[in-house]
Amino acid sequence: MSVKGVGAGHAGDPSTLRKLNVAAVLRLLYAAQASGTAGEVTAGDRYTVTEIAQAVGISRPTAEDVVDALVEQGWLAAAAPRPATPGRRSAGRPARTIAFDSQAGCVVGVDLARHWVRALVADLAGRVIGRADYPVADGASAAERSAAARTAITEALRLADRDPAQILAAAAATVGIASADGQVVRSTIPQMEGHSIGELLGAFLPVPVRVANDMRAAVLAEYWAGAAVGCSSAVYLHVGRRIGSSYLIDGVSPLGHHGAAGEIPPESGRQLVDAYRKLVSFTGVGVDTLPRDEMLGIDPLTVFEAAQRGETDARQAVVDFADEFAAATEGLVITVDPEVVVVGGGVIVAGDIAADAIRSRLARVCMFEPRVVVSPLGESAAAVGAVRLALTDFEETLFSNPFTRGQTAEEAG
Amino acid sequence: MSVKGVGAGHAGDPSTLRKLNVAAVLRLLYAAQASGTAGEVTAGDRYTVTEIAQAVGISRPTAEDVVDALVEQGWLAAAAPRPATPGRRSAGRPARTIAFDSQAGCVVGVDLARHWVRALVADLAGRVIGRADYPVADGASAAERSAAARTAITEALRLADRDPAQILAAAAATVGIASADGQVVRSTIPQMEGHSIGELLGAFLPVPVRVANDMRAAVLAEYWAGAAVGCSSAVYLHVGRRIGSSYLIDGVSPLGHHGAAGEIPPESGRQLVDAYRKLVSFTGVGVDTLPRDEMLGIDPLTVFEAAQRGETDARQAVVDFADEFAAATEGLVITVDPEVVVVGGGVIVAGDIAADAIRSRLARVCMFEPRVVVSPLGESAAAVGAVRLALTDFEETLFSNPFTRGQTAEEAG
DNA sequence: ACGGTTATCCAAAAAAGTTTCATAATGGGC
DNA sequence: GCCCATTATGAAACTTTTTTGGATAACCGT
Predict the structure, then answer these.
(1) Whole-angstrom Cα distance, residue A370 to residue A372?
(2) Between A217 and A13, whose confidence is greater?
(3) Beta strand pairing status for B209-213 and B233-239?
(4) What are phi and psi of A216, to 5 degrees?
């Protein structure tokens, strides 16, 4: 009989106590700033030392000691004095306010798609402060693609006015199945198979690059800042220049034993290719030119746009395909029993047409019918998910080893 | 943007340190005894104080202090001196050995099935030390069923030679969907709907009763002590007097938003009922007497036994049904991409016949074919899973509040 | 300008852990 | 049968961290 989660656990000398308290203070202030909306500095992101002491459950002198140390290291910074709120009494010496310094570094998220590379640079509050897209030719090699990624990252950093040395974490989302060390095992971009994205980009960046499937990154993005915020579980269905699916339970997208959990099954995939042919035939491209296992290369966006304009045939084509797609992924929805199903990809230009078709199909087959909504993140979902993955990496290092910090801290000031 | 898992965290005064160290020592010794196989005392379950200090990472005097306190409270006990191992030098003063006292209490796991109630009593190492089954009539009321459960628990306690006051945790597995507070929301036993198993049994036991779906409990049992030990993910398929399914990822069986994750979808369910009718028609019972949404009441075990004996028709019936069943649950397997698929329920008396049929079906539709194996736990899987749930409850209270212990500690001695 | 109120800072005490050293107990060698 | 090397045990002194309590500083409103 094996028991999981019953390891040796943490233990230690009095210095452990300081580490705990430092981490607790950091968690409090990091959570306070991270919960603010992008671009806007909320009033709740700064704390006085007394408030920190009360919130964390330590005495005031200890809180002060910890705060001073963290300010010294550059993680915390003095914030602007709190504006006088009418209801609050303003007597007594004003307290200095402290906030997590979201500018103490940055993270990078990259989406390596088939036809483009997108790089996002975000501050430590998750606000995107730099973005760059770079087109990639269909037949581009792995070296060319990683070169494009480096170019995009450099451009995004320039727009964000940041130095590469300030990067504290990085992640990349890409098509296909990636192994734990970032090796691309299987991909619809055959040139990428066998290459390690982690190595290709890691050599360029000062931090290791976490690699994830782009559908998983997208559902994570929806959970973090999209249509699935606050949901304990979600299914993501992608219809656009390609199709894909993923799911998320309690904030994580399970990989499965072979990394294929949540993928569209091959059998349904073949049926879907036929349906997709019908869909893209509206573009005027000859159906026979579409290779069998290849669903890219033809742009269905024109169909989605036509459907949105109200053209009957196009609308029917989108509905038909969406229905077929829902049939192929109903097993996923039934298995996960999600709080919400998010429809993303290029199909969102057609508004609710696809989502409505998917909803009505799921209503017929599900014991409990989930909400079906259109993604607010659009095509940048995967890149945003990569940013979230990078932030998670950063948080882990921050909260586990808050005292071991590189040179970049002081430089970031 | 919301960030999960970035709460206030733990912090505190020097006494926190002692709690941490106590918990760490408990974890170490608990894990050591829990990893032993049932009924056998392994050599690895006892530690000397010096070994504890090294393993946990604290100094010897501290380890001694903690151990003494825990022995005082009854969680740890002096173990028999370690036998002289040939390779090990035997010089020096022999150290006393300490072990977690798996007899310091017990846990109860109950399976409330349609036709029986099964109660298991296990010690804190997870060894079953008392078991009792109690038949229940098909139309029995909720009150009658809970009375049967009480009788079974009392009998199992008697056989285990334990007092009800020694029960430290309890859990119940049952058909249907249960809400978080133990209320049965939906069940194929209509008499149970609307009743709270937690309340029905909790009033009888000195601890709150955790309630779970029996399929989820079964897959947890397979993960703990069955065919899925060491697997990061598993799917459980149950074919017997009833059918059901569940899955498990990283040791937890996700509930889904409505508690229906992993259930067989209604559409496939209806097809399955037809297939099931064909299967049970071998028992000679008229097909028309089988109610539509009712798959119990007729015993298919005779078919499984006939198939095992080699009767061609019975074998074909089992294969046909297994194939249909695999088709109905392939979406589950594809979504989870499990390391192993465990086939349980009464069908295991037919040996590998059903598992082989399921395996060949899955091989056709899965991108990565999982292992398909027959459950070694048989019909007691759900009850064993309930024991595991109870142990998890116990572990949580033990490791979070090791010092707050009731009267039962001293009585258990 | 002055009192009230609150933040900040400083010193002493308490809690817990570590190191160091003396003592106890056992098995093997002579 | 006695002695010694070896290991466990236990007690004292020292370190780190936190807390408590009091003294000081800064700001607001009257």
Answers:
(1) 6
(2) A217
(3) unpaired
(4) -65, -40
